[in-house]
Specification:
The structure is a single chain. The chain is an alpha/beta fold. The chain has a single domain, classed as Survival protein SurE-like phosphatase/nucleotidase (Stationary-phase Survival Protein Sure Homolog, Chain: A). It contains 7 helices and 11 strands. The strands form 2 sheets. It has a 9-stranded mixed sheet with strand order 3-4-2-1-5-6-7-11-8, with helices on both faces. β1, α1 and β2 form a beta-alpha-beta unit. α1 crosses α5 and α2 runs parallel beside α4. The longest helix is centred in the middle third of the chain and has 17 residues. Nucleotidase that shows phosphatase activity on nucleoside 5'-monophosphates. This is 5'-nucleotidase SurE. It is an enzyme of class 3 (hydrolase). GO terms for molecular function: 3'-nucleotidase activity. Its EC number is 3.1.3.5.
Length: 260
């Protein structure tokens, strides 16, 4: 198997090393792992692409590249430049430091990379490691993802439905905020919603008196409804959420047809 990996935390991120190990296990002795990752951190860029300006790309080693762009840019670079003569069978994005459960999925560059791969017709996974008191200060806070990542991907690949839609499925996988030994299992769940918390801004003044705003995330340990991703994660389970890039609210179509 030939695998392309990317992330949004940047080419030097520890989570990318974990993803490389996961991909190497999946690819097997005769497989290949190619990396095209952002040269700098791109957290929060979602599915952004560098449509209005070019991006620099540099080879750092064998099958290892850094691009000055978003995760979606990196997938495009991998498919249409770096690996154009040897396309991948699978695209993996992550392992993100921090969860991409619930509404975080809408902002996530990690998910943006997997989404772009799906739009390009390839099976793709976004992997993220929830952080919390039980793993944040560990020597390897990515332990749950490192130990269980390859197995989860294998199981999903074996079970995933045949492609029937133009918008191909991709998979959002979040590992709970516990060491690997504390993982209770896997739950296939829908995307949740954290009520009463959201992104916002925090104003600060520079020494020269200019006003700056920091984007500030909400509380991450607010439980979502049972049967959803963050609820599963906060109860010790790996969450697997099938997603696609079709943004249509299908449940609202019939009601709105009264205006036709």
């Amino acid at each position: 198997m030939r695998i392309l990996i990317t992330n949004d935390d940047g080419i030097a991120a520890p989570g990318l090393e974990v993803m490389t190990a996961i991909a190497t296990e999946l690819a097997g002795p005769s497989g290949e792992v190619w990396t095209v990752a952002p040269a700098f951190e791109q957290s929060g860029v979602a599915h952004c692409i560098s449509y209005t300006h070019p991006m620099l790309i540099a080879q750092l080693g064998e099958r290892r590249y850094a691009a000055e762009g978003s995760p979606a840019d990196c997938v495009l670079a991998g498919l249409h430049d770096v690996m154009v003569k040897c396309p991948p069978d699978l695209v993996l994005s992550g392992v993100n430091r921090g969860n991409n459960s619930a509404e975080n999925a809408l902002y996530s560059g990690t998910i943006g990379g997997a989404m772009e791969a799906a739009l390009q017709g390839l099976p793709a996974f976004a992997l993220s490691q929830y952080m919390g008191p039980a793993n944040f200060a560990d020597d390897n806070p990515f332990d749950a993802a490192a130990v269980h990542g390859a197995e989860v991907i294998r199981k999903v690949l074996a079970a995933m439905p045949a492609r029937t839609e133009d918008y191909r499925l991709f998979y959002n996988v979040n590992f709970p905020p516990v060491p690997a030994a504390g993982v209770k299992g896997v739950r296939v769940v829908r995307q949740g919603f954290r009520r009463g918390t959201s992104f916002g801004v925090e104003p600060h003044a520079s020494p020269s008196g200019k006003r700056f705003l920091w984007i500030k995330g909400g509380e991450q340990h607010v439980p979502t409804d049972p049967g959803t991703d963050a609820h599963a994660n906060l109860h010790g389970f790996i969450s697997v959420t099938p997603m696609r890039a079709d943004l249509t609210a299908h449940d609202a179509l019939d009601a709105l047809r009264t205006i036709e």
